[in-house]
Each structure stands twice: as C-alpha cells, then as structure tokens.
Amino acid sequence: MILVAGPLLVLWVAGLALAALDGRRRGVGVLAIAAVAVAFGLQAVLLGRVLADGPQELVAGGWAADVGIRLRVDALGAVFAALSSGIVVAALLQAVATGVRSRSLPALVVFLTLGLSGLFATGDVFSFYVFFELAMIAAYALTAASGTAREVGAAFLFAIVNLVGSFLFLIGIALLYRATGTLEMVAVAEAAGRLEATTAILIAISFFVAFGTKLGLFPFHFWLPTLYATASPPVAAIFAGALANIGAYGLLRFGGAILPNELALSATALIVIGSVSIAYGAIQAIGRRDTREVLAYSSIGHVGYILVALGLGGPVGLAAAVAFSVANALNKALLFLSSELRGRLTAAIFLVGVLSVAGVPPTAGFFGKAALFDAGVRAESWWTVALLFVGGALSFVYVFQIYQHDRWRPREQRERATPLGSAGVGQRLAAGLVALVVLVLGLWPQPLLAAGRDAAEAIVVARGDG
Predict the structure, then answer these.
(1) How many helical (H) and strand (E) elements, i.e. helices and strands, does the chain have?
(2) Alpha carbon distance 441, 437 (integer Å)
(3) Pick the residue with more confidence: 1 or 122?
C-alpha cells in the first residue's frame, strides 16, 4: 500500500540522493524540503485513512507477518508520524531560509525523518530498533554538523548518554524475544500477559530507562540543556518537536500496549517521578535567563506531565498523554523556531507559543493540559490535580519571564546575541505555520482530542482489551 510504504521510499531515495550533493546550495535544501513535505502529505492522508478505516498493514515481499518486515500503522503511530514530519518541514524551511552552513545537513534531516517515520510505522520490535538507531545516528551527526568545538562536545555527550539508552533497549528486546519467541508487536502484546513476573519487570525497566533517556526525563536529563542551547534554532526545534517523540511514543507503545500490567504496577512510581520532573524542570527554568536554556528545562518539566498521564492510566489517561505530547511538541518547535527572530510579527508568533506552554486559551496547550486535568479528576487523583495547577502556575511564570526578558528589554541589555536578526519571509513563514496550527487546535480542539482518544483506543486494542 502506497500510503504505508510511500513515505519511507520517498525519504530513503531522497536521503541517498541528497547525501551526494552540497547541502549549502539553496536548491539542495529545497529538494530536502520537498521530500519531507511529500512524506508529510502522504502521512496526513494515511492518518485520515487510519482514523476512518482502522490500522493499515503491509508485509514486505509477501512473507508471513512474523517473518517478513511488517509495517502496521494504527492511530497512535499515524498521529506521531504526521506530527513529527510536519515539524521537520517547518524547521527545514527555516534552516534553508536562514542559510545552511553544513554540506550534510539536508541529507541528515531527511535520514532522521526516515528513521522517525519508520519506527512509527513498523509492526516489528526489531525493525523499531533499526529505525530508532537510524534516527539517533542522524541526530548525533546533525548536532555536530557545523563542526564547532562546542557543538562537537554537545554531540559527544548526546551520543554517549543515548548509546547507553540504546544498549538497554537492545537488552530489553533480547529478553522480550527470549520470553515470547517473537518480535512481531501484535503477537508480543498477546504473549506479554503470560510472562514471568521478574522477566517482565526487567524488560519494563530496560524500556523505561531507554525511552526516559530519549525524552530527557529527570534524572536522565543532564545531556539535554547543553544540546538545546548549542544547536541552531531549526535543529533544536527538530530535536524538541520531533526526535523527542521517540520517547513519548515508546512509553505509550511498549508500556501501554505491550506491558500494560507492569505499567499499572508502576503507576505510583511513574506519578512520583513525573512530579519530580515537573517541579525540577520548572524551578530550573525560572532560574535561567537565556531563552533556549529556559526552553530546555521546560522540556524536562513537560516530560513529567506525560509520565503522570501514563501513571493515571486507563483510556482517559492514555488519551491525555497523547494529546499533551502533540501540543507539547508543537509548542517547543514553535518557541525554538521563533526564539532568535525579531520584529513585531515574530514577537506575536513567539507570544502564541508562550501562551500555549502556559496553557492559556485559545491555544493547543490549553487543551493538552485540560486533558490531563480531566484524567486526574476522573481517576480521583486530587494530588495529581493539585500538581497540575502548581506546574501550570510555574510554567506561566517562566514563559512570561523569558518573554519579558527577550522581547521587552532593550536589545543591548539582552544576554543572547540574535544572529538571525530581522527575520526574512522564509524564517517568519516557518514559525508562523506552526503558530497557526497551535491557534487552530486551540480554536477547534476536536481533532487534537479525537486523535488522543483514537490513539488510546489503538493501544487498548493492541493489548487485547478491546
């Protein structure tokens, strides 16, 4: 089926072609934008098909599902695939409009998108790992693409920490295969309920640490502030808005669908760790003045909300985790893309991101947090509801603090230089498109909330509860 395999084929061919070209040329960058945009268009259509008709499947070469490479896209995977590719399009548009300084950047971005698209579409655990590593290798190289000493140092730390997470994930896969005799996700989900308790817990811990590292969850966060503060705004937007989705998707897929019993047993621990992450990220963000450092610690804190939603569990909690993940990815991408742009229009675009992170209507962030409140109320977890109020108040403080510091103070008093200066049309367009999506989802939240519900239903069905 062209909608299932099409995005991967387009990105694979485009990545190979772009690798042989000089990415500093404007035309090469435009080709990369076109390739990712085509993949995004196919994934958007696929998302509509999945929501209307259910999961779409394809087994390469006509092999049996447990032998051949199986692609299976359900609502959860379709939502994250379209979200991630859309953010990459906007970020790549700004990078090309600003001027690409690295020969390899367009090809690396396309390969990273290929890795993300593949892992969101695969129905096989080992294929998930292969695409997972492809995305991470491209990310390591992208971090150091400009070749400055600071970027190379950030890339080295990023690689070392995340390789540890990848190693733990591989151990979890090996244990899972040994215990179930298969790596096909549907079959694994069916067999997981019969796993011996100790084995299941070891697998769950391995997956949790691996995906917690990718998300930058406290206490696995120490690599993230340096990386986000060092990377260019478009690259930071890709990392925060697209690459970080690996962690959220992985916890939902492997925790919610494959190991739901272990997820339920660890509910209290997840809520506690999530609460600590929320508080730590918010307090650290309040103490920073550099915009991108604030956004980095804000990312750490907002990961905690996803963990709390997973801890609350049930269809409502899972739906809230998905809805919040979508809104959070859009918010962070928007703020990074507009963080170093100047002008009245870009100030308004930045303000949209600020309002959304603070959870102020009419923005997507309001409904992302509203879904979490609803999950807490339905679970009668009043501690969680109180935590969300406190976390929301702290978010309001630090986002308006950076807006005041970055937009209202005289330019000569700002700590960060603004290399993008007065924004060009392409730079404004990239940030403006994301801001428009954030506002549309705030004024018409039904697609966001429906995507969360359908994705949660796909998780429940995958584990055999539906």
Answers:
(1) 20, 2
(2) 6
(3) 122
367 CB contacts (<8 Å, ≥6 apart)?
Answer: 323, 327, 441, 442, 445, 448, 449
Single out the residue of 252, 172, 260 nearest to residue 210, CA to CA.
172
Residue 280 clears pLDDT 70, i.e. is over it: yes
Q: How confident is the model at residue 70 (pLDDT cuts 50, 70, 90)?
A: confident
Cα gap 388→282, rounded to integer Å: 12
Please give the angle made by the CA atoms of 269, 202 and 252, to the nearest 5 degrees. 60
* Stated pTM of the model: 0.90
| φ, ψ (nearest 5 deg) of residue 426 | -65, -40
Dist CA 337 CA 284 (whole Å)? 22
E-state strands within 135-278 = none
**CA-to-CA distance for 320 and 376, rounded, in angstroms?**
10
Pairing of strands 70-73, 56-59: antiparallel
**C-alpha to C-alpha distance for 262 and 207, rounded to whole angstroms:** 11
Q: Name residue 58's beta-bridge partners.
A: 71
**C-alpha closest to that of 428 among 365, 357, 346:** 346
pLDDT tens digit sequence for 324-350: 999 999 999 999 998 888 778 888 898
What the block records as the tokens of 211 is 């995906």
* CB-based contact 31:14 (threshold 8 Å): yes
Tell me the backbone φ, ψ of residue 72, rounded to 5 degrees. -140, 115
* Distance in angstroms (rounded) separating the CA atoms of residues 391 and 377: 16
Using the structure block, give the residue that is written with the tokens 């705004």.
233
Q: Which of 121, 129, 168 is nearest to 6 (CA)?
A: 121
Tokens 């035309």, residue? 27
DSSP codes of every residue in 247-312? HHHHIIIIIIII-HHHHHHTHHHHHHHHHHHHHHHHHHHHT--SHHHHHHHHHHHHHHHHHHHHHH
Residue 425: Cβ-neighbour burial (10 angstroms; 0-12, 13-18, 19+): exposed
- Closest by CA position to 188, among listed 206, 202, 176, 172: 176
Q: Which two tokens stand for residue 271?
A: 């809520």
**Nearest Cα to Cα of residue 368 among 356, 382, 384:** 356
Rounded Cα distance between 455 and 54, Å, is 11
